[in-house]
Amino acid sequence: MLKRYLYILILKVYSITISISGNIKELTLQADKFSVYKKMIVILIIAAVSLPAPSYKYMRVDTDKRLETIAFGSCGHQDKPQPVLDLISDIRPDLFIYLGDNVYNDSYQIKDLPGCYSRLGSKPEFIRLKDTADILAIWDDHDYGWNDSGNDYPFKEKSKQIFLDFFGIPEKEILRRKGIYYSKLFTDGKHKVQIIMLDLRTFRDRLLPYKGEKAWIPGYQYRLDYSPHLNKKPAMLGEEQWAWLQKQLRLPADLRIIASSTQFGVSYNGYESWANFPHEQKRLLDLIKSTRAEGVIFISGDVHYGEISLIEEEYLYPIYDITSSGITSTWPFSTPNLNRIAGPVMENNFGLITIDWDRNDPEITIQIRDVNDDVRINWEFKISHLKFK
Ligand SMILES: [Fe+2]
User: Fold this and answer.
1) Which tens digits make up the pLDDT trace of 87-146?
2) How far is the CA of 202 from the centre of ligand 1 (A)?
3) Domain boundaries 69-386, corresponding CATH code
4) Residue list, CB under 5 A from ion ligand 1
5) Separation of 74 CA from ligand 1 center, angstroms?
6) What angle do CA 358, 364, 366 make, to 5 degrees?
7) Where are the alpha helices (DSSP H) in 292-344?
């Protein structure tokens, strides 16, 4: 758009100059001066035509490669410096995954959302990251709609269009259906890594407000917002997304990273997480079992600190949920989490998954690195660890 305006402006300047020059010429201006103006204007036009368009539409994601380093993060305010993004660019990962709350529309007015993305898009840290790594993204509440909002958010279609435009996700399939869920399969022909991007907002039914039922549980030094749904009807994903996910989990892959904006693996803590919909959390674990999908790892954001949670169940391999949050946000405390095996990291941070494919049993290293680039969590296991016994 800017390029178009610049083009029009230059053409106008050119025509005005010609007309003025014509008059001046009549006033006996020297002919060689007019020719210098003409040359300058031609150079300006060529410069305008070769300017790159300032749009992130159709950001290219190269899936024909062996995915070895995957960085991820969430919760970045577009008006704050984002040194975490520079640390990620320094690593030059194959892929960076935005896990939601990628911008904060604090006015809650949909008309202000494009401006939030433009401010992120013009940050040098973001431009450098975009030029360094492929980027995939899902959204959470602050870039979808209102705080903790779900399927009752009235501007979800408009918000979706703004999201897809910014992150350049042109797939017709996504445009046709509700929500923003999608997947990508990265492969060099031999090694397959499936990235499954969930939409935890478009279909999510209302949360159940906390009414004091769990006041007796020790360790809650804060006001609880929500209680778990005991009835099995309220939805997290919605039936369309469930059917799609089932198909995805049946596709062959060595490793599957499921991106969930809110935490999947934490125990109930009164804040937003899958634990508020225990029947949906169980349904997903059961789906992994029934599809025999191996190599599943969850990554999540939202909570403004980093940690690893682990779910261990009968007839299932260990299910890890690696949470990285935030790029700029912080929180004064971490909630109790019976499933926490590492962390919390309370400073700004990002997550990093590295896969060493050159071993017989490929080794996976999971890290949470803080804003000083210190490795605060380092967790390693073989890929065979994520297989059914
Ligand atoms: Fe959030």
Assistant:
1) 999 999 999 999 999 999 999 999 999 999 999 999 999 999 999 999 999 999 999 999
2) 14
3) 3.60.21.70
4) 101, 140-141, 302
5) 9
6) 145
7) none
% of the chain residues with pLDDT over 90: 78
Contact 329, 79 (CB under 8 A): no
Q: What is the pLDDT of residue 20?
A: 39
CA of 100 to the centre of ligand 1 (A): 7
Q: What are phi and psi of 183, to 5 degrees?
A: -140, 160
Q: Where are the domains of the chain?
A: 2-49, 69-386
pTM of the model: 0.85
Longest pairwise C-alpha distance within the chain: 95
Q: Give 221 Cα–ligand 1 centroid separation in angstroms.
A: 21
**pLDDT at 13 exceeding the cut of 80:** no
Pairing of strands 255-260, 192-197: parallel
The span from the CA of 26 to the CA of 48, in Å, is: 31
Phi and psi at residue 333, in whole multiples of 5°? -150, 160
Q: Tell me: pLDDT of 10 over 90.
A: no
Q: What is the CA(67)–ligand 1 centre distance, in A? A: 28
Closest of 308, 321, 330, 284 to residue 76, by C-alpha: 330
How far is ligand 1, taken at its centre, from the CA of residue 161, in Å?
19
What's the CA-to-centroid distance between 260 and ligand 1, angstroms? 11
Q: What is the whole-number distance in angstroms between the Cα of residue 152 and the centre of ligand 1?
A: 16
Q: Are 355 and 362 in contact (CB under 8 A)?
A: yes
Q: How many CB atoms lie within 10 A of CB 7?
A: 14
The predicted model gives 1-29 an average pLDDT of 40
